[in-house]
Specification:
Layout lengths: L1 H8 L4 H9 L3 E4 L3 H6 L6 E2 L18 E5 L3 H12 L5 E6 H8 L3
Parallel strand pairs: 1-2, 1-3, 3-4
Helix pairs in contact: 1-4
Organism: Flavobacterium caseinilyticum
Pfam family, one: Rhodanese
Protein name: Rhodanese-like domain-containing protein
Length: 106
């Protein structure tokens, strides 16, 4: 239970996430397609939370993966799902705006 709460409420250090982005992390927006269409991070892919477990192949072979959503809640759930599937290179990026701001920084 603590691990679930920790994943939901903890966000990564922004400098660490910035480095992962620079190193080519796979950026995965787990919001719905409609939400994604309203605004998204350049270069990100949309895999809605309810499809994450069925699209494991999209994550295989990626050095780093950053998942994000509207509030950080669904991305925390996606991180947990992926960790349960054996991935250990997942970062909860929080909101899509947080990730977008890091990419557009400078």
């Amino acid at each position: 239970m603590f691990r679930i709460l920790k994943n939901i409420f903890s966000k990564s250090d922004n400098s660490q996430m910035e480095n992962l982005i620079k190193e080519g992390a796979l950026l995965v927006d787990v919001r719905t397609p409609a939400e994604f269409a309203e605004g998204n991070v350049k270069g990100s892919i949309n895999i809605p939370l309810d499809q994450v477990a069925n699209k494991i192949d999209r994550f295989k072979g990626k050095k780093y993966i950053i998942v994000f959503c509207r509030s950080g809640n669904r991305s925390a759930q996606a991180k947990t799902i992926l960790e349960q599937k054996g991935f250990n290179n997942i970062t909860n990026g929080g909101t899509w705006q947080d990730v977008n701001n890091l990419i557009n920084k400078g």
